[in-house]
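pinging the channel bc i need a second pair of eyes. not urgent but kinda urgent?? the chain im working w is below, pasted from the shared doc
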Amino acid sequence: MKKLILIFALIPFLSFGQSEVIKKLDEKAEFYTDIAMQLWNNPELGYLETESSALLQQTLSDAGFQVEAGVAEIPTAFVAEYGSGSPIIGIMAEFDALPGVSQKAVPFREPVVEGGAGHACGHHLFGAASVAAAISAKEWLEENGMQGTIRLYGTPAEEGGGGKVYMAKSGIMDDVDAMLHWHAGSGNSAIAASSLANISTKFRFYGEASHAAAAPERGRSALDGVEAMNFMVNMLREHVPQETRMHYVITRGGEAPNVVPAFAESYHYVRHPDARKVKEIFDRMVEIAEAAAKGTNTEMEYEIINGVYNILPNETLSKFMHANLESIGGLEYTPEERKFAEEIISTYPPGVMVSPDDAAEIEPFRVVEQGTGGSTDVGDVSWLVPTAGLRVATWVPGTSAHTWQAVAAGGMSIGAKGMIIAAKTLSLTAIDLFENPEAVAQAKEELERRRGDDFTYQALTGDRKPPLDYRK
């Protein structure tokens, strides 16, 4: 019976009720676009998304959801719920921006505010579409008299702040039967794919200030400690698994060349497809930092800013998501949008071979067990709750995340059209799961099989509290 359900889910066919959901989302597309553009015009950084969070909460409250704000000791985190009983289907919404990528909705580089923040990862669209999907699922439950609970999780600070990690640790997701999410992208896909686990850490060195020319012997350079550490970390690259990614910036290196720096700081990321390997490599980095401090006669302390698991794919849920994405289809550009896309593509480095037509394509379904690319705090959730996601071409094909090109497309009709595709796909997938409790049970069985009998969740952030000031 379970196999028949999964096979049926792969057939791109919409029931009358599902067609009504699609129709209503089309009718409210302008309403949800306005919400997304309010977030785009007011980009707020991680854990500082006060107005963005409030707007999404108010939208859900107005739609009949019960909203609890300030969950998991995070002022901008919230949970909105409608319905009762099982299954409990969760949808996650992000809404934080990135620093330094302010950009107008034009196909050439032009910041709104020089050095200001911008939605270079499309989280304004993410938040609005997820809210739209939750409201659509709520209306479907109500109209069909179905039992079940729809929850929208407002998850702050995905960009390096790990909001979902602290929400997962708090236990507020423990009773969820299936979790859905999506992300802005340059293509359309709903594959069952992993990601890279990641630990990000600030290493702080403390020395003694002195006149660098008159009395250098009295100084102890904190910058020497940072540079010694970074030199040895770069040597470590030869001796870690090839899938490892390590990168850093020096966030403080001193104030003047003629003053021996009394304080210096280096901000490091280490990534790998396996969270256990990340922890092992991170422990070696700590030993390197300790050695650097000893060698430079300085003091060192470190702070783990964020730590996330790799995503644990769930093929059962992802097949539903893929089938619904195929039934909705990708983006069809207007002539004006195509011109915008072509101008964006002309700004790419040589060798990026893409076409505006690629925005209409749906990537074939597959399972990717070993993660590549970036990291996300969705990973922690996926080890606790069966989780599936998708990407939609809200950016011009070929656009990289965290770029001005992403901000530009996300602030005009290309981003808005992609957002509605995501909302439709999430809505239909939630409805599928409400109608097929056997599939929800199968997704849970898959989760237990993939993570193993001996799995115990231990956050890579340890027992630290949410870093609410990491962007200040």
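so The domain at 197-308 is CATH 3.30.70.360 (Alpha-Beta Plaits). and The radius of gyration is 23 Å. — does that match what u expected or am i reading it wrong
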